[in-house]
């Protein structure tokens, strides 16, 4: 089965969420925002990760480089909220609903 992870990077700890191919949450954890800690966490998890999405930010280049060196399938992801919704659909507002 394919497994995927997302990492929300913060200065001290990163939030990690692992999903299976159906979208079921397999595991969630807080892990120190250091390459050694994240690499060890994924190795201890014991699942072959198809892809690990790493939030782009101040620590990301360092984490990305070290995780890649360790053989993890990691990619940097930009967090641009304005692209998360379709452009043609306006956001609801109080004036529209009255």
Summarize the structure.
With 98 residues, this protein is α/β, with parallel strands linked by helices.
Explain this structure.
With 98 residues, the chain is α/β, with parallel strands linked by helices. The protein has a five-stranded mixed beta sheet with strand order 3-2-1-4-5, covered by helices on one side. It is built from three helices and five strands. Helix 1 (35-45) crosses helix 2. The model has no long low-confidence stretch (mean pLDDT 84).
Features:
alpha/beta; 98 residues
Helix content: 25-40%
How confident overall, as mean pLDDT? 84
Helix/strand order, N-terminal first: EEEHEHEH
Figure out the total of helices. Answer: 3
Secondary structure class reads alpha/beta
Straight-line N-to-C gap: 49 Å
Number of strands: 5
Residue runs with pLDDT of under 50 for 5 or more positions: none
> Which sheet architecture does the biggest sheet show?
5 strands, mixed
What does the overall shape look like? Answer: globular
What is the alpha-carbon Rg in Å?
16 Å
* Strand composition percent: 25-35%
Strand order of the largest sheet: 3-2-1-4-5
């Amino acid at each position: 089965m394919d497994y995927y992870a997302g990492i929300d990077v913060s200065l001290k700890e990163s939030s990690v969420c692992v999903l299976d191919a159906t979208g079921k949450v397999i595991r969630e954890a807080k892990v120190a925002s250091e390459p050694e800690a994240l690499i060890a966490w994924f190795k201890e998890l014991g699942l072959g990760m198809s892809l690990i999405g790493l939030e782009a930010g101040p620590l990301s280049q360092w984490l990305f480089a070290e995780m890649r060196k360790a053989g993890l399938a990691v990619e940097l992801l930009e967090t641009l909220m304005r692209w998360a919704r379709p452009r043609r659909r306006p956001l609801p507002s109080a004036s529209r609903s009255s």
